[in-house]
Design brief:
Number of helices: 8
Strand order of the largest sheet: 1-2
Radius of gyration: 19 Å
Shape: globular
Strand content: under 5%
Amino acid sequence: MYEKRPSRRVGALDELRGLLILLMVYYHGAYDAAVIFGADFPFFFSRPMQWLQTFISCGFIIISGMSARFSRNNLRRGVQVLGLGLLLTAATLFVMPDQRVMFGILHFLGSAMILFALFEKQLDKIPTVLGAPLFVAIFILTLYVPRGMLGYPPFWTPLPDMLYQTGFLFPLGFPSDGFFSSDYFPLIPNLFLFFGATYLGVYAKNGQIPEFCYRTRFSWLAWVGRHTIWVYMLHQPIVYAFLWIYFRLFPAA
């Protein structure tokens, strides 16, 4: 059980969250241009863009896990975020079914917050110093579960096919052959990275990380970071509308 102390806002987390959401806006804009509108943009399919996507997603999961230690009510917050994720599913199924989001980052983060709220007391029984490395190790061990493998290459083993034939276990990380989601973040392995980050949040909440992390240097970026949920929900239709107009005006692009 860790010692709870009065918490201070960690300005660096707000700024990093703001940077990540701006990078996500860029990534989604590039995705829309290259995949949906068919623009000649080969860089989107390059390895640096894959690294960027990994950096963005892992960054959001880690920051959200750390921030769970600062939340007054993770259960309520999780239900709200999951509800927005389900709203996104309904909207994409209705407007663009070929780009549907069945279990994306909002579904995952909302579910992770709910699970953390339910199991926080049990998680606190693990020593803080061991929590992060333990769950990161499990995260690496289960990284390829959505692809049917347990372990890390070359030390991995196939999982039973029946797990991937149900059609409804995709939120856990067992998608069937016909499953598609344009944004997919299953609980396995991502929940273990989230849980690991909550132990880093203990140090941040207790004032045990470097002092400069608590200062805010770019107030505008921190503001964006404190409103990421609204940026996430609103940026995609705005970006899509902009690109739709652009490619109608300049079809050769």
